[in-house]
């Protein structure tokens, strides 16, 4: 049997799609055919075969089984899919996965250090800053980012910089309290009753 070749029909009538060459990828000439893309997610490099139109959210959830980022609206309106690309907040549902090749993608799964929760995760638990939990991964990613960005002086500023993340359960006062707790403790979440 002849092995499948580029553009040739192979077993069960499938064609072997042509992959972009390194030069084509460097020039941004990835065509509509699926291509191998290297995505670095939470410090681990993954080779994944994607069509250029696949969103980062779909690549994470459906191809890499990274399910922290949620598909809320799939229109960039709710913030449930917020992740970081090179340390900056992005909406994964509006970001093409191929645009993230060679960049560091961090999801909520990358916040904790092993079994030790990130201080913001601890503060969310301490302050009951979640109800159903669906929006929590995006809320956490934005909350940590706004701390790094310095947008945490008061509740008005916190609310403004968290406004891209919708909580349908209306846990906003508790989310702001959790952010204040981390801010006021210098980045450490403190349990109530600790001195």
Write the layout of secondary structure elements.
Blueprint: H1 22-26, E1 35-41, E2 44-50, H2 56-63, E3 82-85, E4 88-91, E5 104-106, H3 119-126, H4 136-149, H5 155-161, H6 172-184
Parallel strand pairs: 1-5
Antiparallel strand pairs: 1-2, 3-4, 3-5
Task: Describe the overall structure.
The chain is an alpha+beta fold and 195 residues long. 28% of the residues lie in helices and 13% in strands. The chain is built from 6 helices and 5 strands, in the order αββαβββαααα. The chain has a 5-stranded mixed β-sheet with strand order 2-1-5-3-4, sandwiched between helices. A hairpin with a 2-residue loop joins β3 and β4. α3 crosses α6. The N terminus and C terminus are likely disordered.
Total of helices: 6
Overall radius of gyration: 20 Å
**Sheet with the most strands, sense and barrel status:** 5 strands, mixed
Strands, count: 5
Low-confidence stretches: 1-16, 190-195
Spell the H/E element sequence: HEEHEEEHHHH
**What distance separates the N and C termini?**
75 Å
**Secondary-structure-derived class:** alpha+beta
In which order are the strands of the major sheet placed?
2-1-5-3-4
Amount of beta strand = 5-15%
Average pLDDT value?
88
Instruction: Give the % helix.
Output: 25-40%
- Shape verdict: elongated
Which labels suit this protein?
elongated, 6 helices, 195 residues, five-stranded mixed β-sheet, alpha+beta
